[in-house]
Amino acid sequence: MTIDSSSGKTAVFFDMDDTLYDQLDPFRLAVQSYLKSTGGEHDFSDFADLFKRVRAHSDALWDVYTAGAMTLDEMRIQRVSRAFEELGIPIGAEEASLIQYNYETEQGRIRLDEGAPEYFRLLQQRGYVTGLITNGPVKHQTFKIRALGVDAIFPENRIFISDAVGYTKPDPRIFQYVNEVTGTKPEQSYYVGDSWRNDVAGAAAAGWKMIWLNRRQAAPSPEFKPYRIIGSLSELFDFFPGSGD
């Protein structure tokens, strides 16, 4: 483990999925591709509601997966099939697997939100310690990191993937690990993420200031109070003026 000499600087780290890009976009395309393959057997248009249900099942099954009681592929199939079933559209494992395959294919075409690359570089120019903290397998997360071009913005030693670190959000130890490796302090660290359970709760437990990106207008829980709530990444563009020193 290499320690940075960034002590005393302000850290601004970001989640990736549904934070640096809108996950609904590749999901919608994946489901549309599946529906087209059924020849109109299922008539469906509320992709936002379906995606919200998939995310809810993903959160509910995440602990089962991390405990080793379910493989990642099984978790992904279950979250899709359960969401469809709630809407009265029962699908089998093979169909759910096809949707997941389509989804991963579309993730290879994802792009950062408009203005984000310039904003990240501006933060770096101002002296902020910037980087990424994301949950998931190294191979799959790296695939998306490269698709977004994040690897050309954040140094490799500032990109933290849970499976490589050994801790998974919301475990506060992943944030503590980032502080240790980057030489930064929790009270001078900000985290920007979309998931209340993984991002808000995890960062708050580690003593970080949490900026909640609430794309879906979800209701917050009373146990944590984010430092700030935003509806889009662009709302951050004027939030860190001056120097990060």
Automatic annotation (TrEMBL):
User: What InterPro entries has UniProt attached to this entry?
Assistant: HAD-like_hydrolase, HAD-like_sf, HAD-SF_hydro_IA, HAD_sf
Q: Which Gene3D superfamilies match?
A: HAD superfamily/HAD-like, Haloacid dehalogenase hydrolase-like domain
User: Which cofactors does this protein require?
Assistant: Mg(2+)
The protein's name: HAD family hydrolase
GO terms of molecular function: metal ion binding; phosphatase activity
Q: State the source organism's domain of life.
A: Bacteria
Q: Which GO terms describe its biological process?
A: small molecule metabolic process
A Pfam family this protein belongs to?
Hydrolase
Asked if the keyword Chaperone belongs to this entry, the reply reads: no
The organism that produces this protein has a lineage beginning with:
Bacteria, Bacillati, Bacillota, Bacilli, Bacillales
> What keywords are assigned to this protein?
Hydrolase, Magnesium, Metal-binding
